[in-house]
Every structure is written in C-alpha cells, then in structure tokens.
Amino acid sequence: MNGEHVIDVRNVTKRFNGKTVVNRLALQVRRGEIYGFLGPNGSGKTTFIRMLCGLLTPDEGEGSCLGFDIRRQSDQIKLQVGYMTQKFSLYEDLSIRENLDFIARLYRVRDRREAVEKSLARLGLTGRHKQLAGQLSGGWKQRLSLAACLIHDPQLLLLDEPTAGVDPKARRDFWDEVHKLAAGGLTALITTHYMDEAERCHRLAYIAYGNLLAHGTVEEVVAAAGLTTWSVSGPDLPRLAEELRARPAVEQVVAFGNTLHISARDAERLRDALSPHFTPAHHWQTIPSGLEDVFISLMQTARDQYAKP
Amino acid sequence: MKDIHFSVHRFLAIVIKEFIQMRRDRLTFGMMIGIPILQLILFGYAINSDPKHLPTAILCADNGIFSRTLVYSMRNSDYFAVDHVVQSEKEAHRLLATGKYQFILQIPEDFTRRILRGECPGLVLLADATDPSATSNAITAIDRLAREALDRDLKGPLQHLRMERNAIDLRIHRMYNPEGITQYNIVPGLMGVILTMTMVMITSLAITRERERGTMENLLSTPAHPLEVMIGKLVPYILVGYVQVCLILVAAQFLFEVPMLGSLSLLLAAAIVFIAANLAVGITVSTVATNQLQAVQMSFFFFLPSLLLSGFMFPFRGMPTWAQAIGQILPLTHFHRLVRGILLKGNTPEEILPHLLPISVFLMTVLFIGWCRYRQTLD
Ligand SMILES: Nc1ncnc2c1ncn2[C@@H]1O[C@H](COP(=O)(O)OP(=O)(O)O)[C@@H](O)[C@H]1O
Ligand SMILES: [Mg+2]
C-alpha cells in the first residue's frame, strides 16, 4: 500500500456526451479516516465514486485505490470495497437473509453461513431474517445495505448518501457505527447533504460542477473560505433582508428563526454595507461562519465560474 | 360549489397531462402506432391461406406425350411450381423429408402407352401434408388439372378414352399426416411459439428489471464478472425452456396423440440452439429498453412477426416473397420445420441441419449485436 493513503487520485475527469461531470479531481484519503464528500445535486459525487470502484472508467486521470490502479485493477479493488449505492439496490423480493447470503456468495466469503448469521445478529434482525427486504422501512433498508457492504470485511467503504430519508435517531446510530468501524481501521468515503454529518467527518471535500472547491477539516475549510458573518435580531426582519440582499457587497442573507445571518468574503465592504442599518432597534454582532454558509458561498462562486450561461 | 363537482378543467388537465406523458415516452408512442401498422400489413398482405406455386418435383419414368403434357400443364398452373426432376424414389423422399419440396409427382413407366391402351395407369402425387392447410387446395386442383390436360390430347380416335371412364387413376399420398389432422401441425408448432414468447420476454424483463431497480449497479460493483452475471441469469431460463418443451411433448403425446417418429434426444439437443437464439434476442432487447414496459413492448414487436410469418398460423408458401424473406430470417420459421421434421417425418440429424443452420446464424448475429450494446451500457 502506498504510504497511508487508501485513496490517492489525481486529475480524474469524466465526461458524458461532451459534458464534463467530474473535472480534474484530486483526492487523498488516509487509512481509518471518515471522509465527507459534499456538493450540490448533480455535482458529480456519484460519478466519482463509481470511478473509484471500477463501475466507470475515467476519461482522464490516474491514481490508486487501496494500492491498486483505478484504471487497470478494478477487479482487485472491488474485492476490498463495500459500495452502498445512492438508491437501495438490494433485492426487494428476496428476504433479508437471502440478500446477505447472495452478496456473501458473490464475494466468496469464507464461512459464509457464519458471516451471514453474525451480520444478522449485529443488525438485530435475526428474528426477522425471513422478512422481504422490500417491506423494510427506510432506516432498516439503510442498515441492511450497510450490513451487506460489510459482509466481506472490506478495507474501504464508499457510501453514497447513506442517510437520505432516514430519521435522526437512525442517522445518529448509523454514524456511531461508522465511527466504530473507522476506529477499527476501516476507511469510509461518505457523501451527504447534512451539515451535522459533515461535521462528524474527520475531513471533507466540497465539489460543485465537478470541481473540487475546498477540502480539509471543518475548521480548515471554514478558515480557507475567509467568510465574515454577522447576525442581526430585531423588528421587521423580512424587510431588512430584502434591503440587504439588494446590496452587492452582501453575498448571503439567511433567516434563522428570529435572526438573520449575513455573510460575505470582503469583511470591510460588508461592514460598510451594513452600517446604515445599525439602528438601536436592531441587535448586531459578528459570529463565526458556519459550514453551511461556507458551502453556499462556495457554490455561488462556482456557479459564476463554471456554470455555462 | 363548483370545486366539488366534476370539473371539466380538472378533467382536461388530466387529459393534457396524459398526452404529454404519452409523447415523452417515445417508444410506447411508437409502439402504439407501430403495432397496428405491423398487424395491418402482416394480416392484410402477408397472409394468404391459399398457397400457390408450391415447389414440385417430378419423378418420371415415362417420356411419352402424355407425361410431357401433364408436366407442362402443371408448370402452367398457379398451384405447382415444377422446377426439378428427380432420378430416384429415394431422392424424392429425401426432398419431402427436408421440406424442400411440397409435392412429388410420380409418373410410372409406360404411362403414355398404357393410357393409349386404355389401361388406366396409376399416377401418384406425394404430398408433404404435415400442414394440411398448405396442400389442400393444390390437391383439389391437381385432379381437374390432370383430367383437363389429358382431355386436350385425347382427341379424334382417342376420344372414346375420355368419354367412357377416367383415363388415369390419380392417387394422392398425404405423407406424414395421412388423415390431415391439424393438431399434428399445430401442437409441435406451439413448442416454438411458446418458447419464443417466454424466452424473449422473460430474459428481457429479468435484465431490464435489474437496471430499472438499480440492483444492476450493486451487482456490478461486486467482483461478479459481467459474463458471470449474464450466464448466471440465462441458465435458469434455459431450464424453464426445457420444462416447457417437455410439457408440450407430453401433451402432444397423451392429449393429441401426435406421432413421434424421430429421436426425442435429437429434438432436445436441437432445441438448445433455438432457446439460445431467443435468449439472445431477450438480452439485446434488454440493452435497448430502459424500463420493463419497453422490454415487453419490444419483445412483442419481435414476437408478432415470428408468430405470423413463420408458417405457424398460415402456410409459409402462401405468403408473398417479401414476407417469406423476413420469415426466413426468423428462428421460429426454421424451428417449426425442424420440430415437424423430427416428430412427423422422423428426420435424421443430417436432414435437420438445413433448419438448424439458419437458427445458428441468427443466434450468432444477435449475440454479436447484444454483446456490443451490452458493453456500451456498462459505461
Ligand atoms: N450515465 C450517465 N450518462 C449521462 N449523464 C450522466 C450519467 N450519470 C450521471 N450523469 C450526469 O452527471 C451529472 C453528475 O451526476 P452525479 O454524479 O449523479 O451527481 P451527484 O451524485 O453529485 O448528485 C449529472 O448532471 C447527471 O445528469
Ligand atoms: Mg449522487
């Protein structure tokens, strides 16, 4: 294995019908790391993950996954990767046990019966093993998918929006489980749209329109964005929001309950733009920028830069 | 109040929405137009249950005037296309067994002389009667045709020969199905029809379903090789195909008492090529279809011409040339001949080879197309 990097790719590019969906992406993920992969819908996250596990061939770029070449050795990569697709992709007309057994056979898991039994027990589904997978609720489907990904003891998990449509308790349990696995040396690349989940990752990357816009720890990403955020509370906030949005120096105005968050990258210009509104009726203060503010700011910049008119 | 009663506006909204969706789903739209047109053409133009110009060979041991007249007038008739002279009875039987010729006219030795002597010589028409409807009109025609032909020559001093009694004794041998039982033809034919329908439809559905539900992506992300996936998916259906073949054979034997002259193991062995050909069509359909509905529609688009142009519903030789040309491509056409050949005629492996070859060519071609398409859809 090449150093400590489980994923180490450069320049990865994929085009569909002339449209660049992933653009010269470079990504490095260390062993035992939980790596968050964020970006708006259609930004190329799924496509990138598919290239990592050999479902798609990159048009350009090279690199390794688990020490194997992503272009030529996808067969070896597949053996050690657990890939959880964005959409539930086990068989709804097979029972829970039959699904696990099928996947275990495909990976030629040794002591298959035992592995399936253990997996069922860990899921807490031993009693319901005969139930059809299609009848499970969203949260259980997700747990079953995760169990299926893990049955062959992979080195790397690629989880594509694993918690979409799952309730908060089940999400929390899921993340506890992922952290436990990572502590045991498993590496995970997880795409998500939830900020709280992003904050539970060791490091993260943000892509938009196929371009990597930021990466690092949460603190690094926030710091690198160089965003200044003000919070204001007081009367008639909707009208104030309207007025602020009209000012070019203001990049974002977001309502949070009874406060507004106003952010921009140029702190000086922002202050100048806001100062006419510093009335006694309103309470103004600067606050640390949130991850969400940063991502929205990144996305807007990216849209100006990359999106075709 | 007007919100709770039937509203024309809401009704129109739904009508408009349906039309928009109909237009978006190009294939369904195409099929809605395409299938009626296909049926119209096939039923209207291709199907003719009064087959004419049936291939006829002559086995002639006489070269007198009457045999020449007879052959000449057959040549000029609509029903018989006389284009071959065979030298031996063995060859004549082989031509019937392989289905190359529908009729053999056997003219005995001294035919002319015996007519002149008023001996009423026998004239034999051997007919391949596996499909009774293909030959019945021609058989009716030959009697009149022979009489009229000879009457023209029986003039002057010979007039008495035609006046008094039949100058010849025309005998028709309905080979392979002497009683003209339609089930003998239809029941073996159903084997191919049923296999075509289920094999194409089931495989195209089975693969499209994996794609539609997203399970294909999961499957391909595992170490499973695409070839393993394909073959693994096909083998169960080959077994299903064999169960169908066996069911039909049992029904043919016990319910319809269809004769089984040839070797059943030969039939089972040959069936695999046909089953494979249909599975290949199913795979190819599944690489084009994006959902299960489309897969069913496209399977039907293949099934319909197979059913109508293969000689199962209507005699093959009754169809116009263009329809026969399409029919010749379809594996079902050749499988019909093969099954009839083995069951009713007792065909040997060499005799079924001419039917097996076109099926194999079809199989290879479709497999190639399917494989190219399949590889494209991976990326
Ligand atoms: N097989 C494909 N053929 C053509 N376009 C595709 C294909 N897969 C994805 N795309 C396009 O690529 C873009 C990125 O898609 P995707 O990787 O699914 O984004 P994300 O997972 O970040 O939402 C989208 O615009 C999508 O329409
Ligand atoms: Mg996605």
Keywords summarizing the entry:
heterodimer, A: 309 residues, alpha/beta, Rossmann fold, Alpha-Beta Plaits, six-stranded mixed beta sheet, four-stranded antiparallel beta sheet, 11 helices, 14 strands, 36% helix, B: 379 residues, abc type-2 transporter like fold, 2 domains, binds adenosine-5'-diphosphate, binds magnesium ion
Cα-atom radius of gyration of chain B? 27 Å
Enumerate the spans of chain A where pLDDT stays under 50 for 5 or more consecutive residues: none
The geometry of chain B reads as elongated
Bound molecules: adenosine-5'-diphosphate, magnesium ion
| Main β sheet profile of chain B | 5 strands, mixed
* CATH class label of the largest domain in chain A: Alpha Beta
Overall mean pLDDT of chain B: 85
* Domain count of chain A: 2
Description:
- Chain A has 309 residues and is an alpha/beta fold.
- Chain A contains 11 helices and 14 strands.
- Chain A has 2 domains: 5-222, 3-Layer(aba) Sandwich (Rossmann fold), CATH 3.40.50; 228-288, ACT domain (Alpha-Beta Plaits).
- In chain A, the strands form 3 sheets. In chain A, strands 6-7-8-3-9-10 form a 6-stranded mixed β-sheet, with helices on both faces.
- With 379 residues, chain B is of the alpha/beta class.
- Chain B folds into 2 domains: 54-175, abc type-2 transporter like domain (abc type-2 transporter like fold), CATH 3.40.1710.10; 182-378, no CATH class.
- A 5-stranded mixed β-sheet of chain B has the order 2-1-3-4-5, sandwiched between helices.
- The model of chain B has no long low-confidence stretch (mean pLDDT 85).
- Magnesium ion is lined by residues 45-46, 86, 160 of chain A.
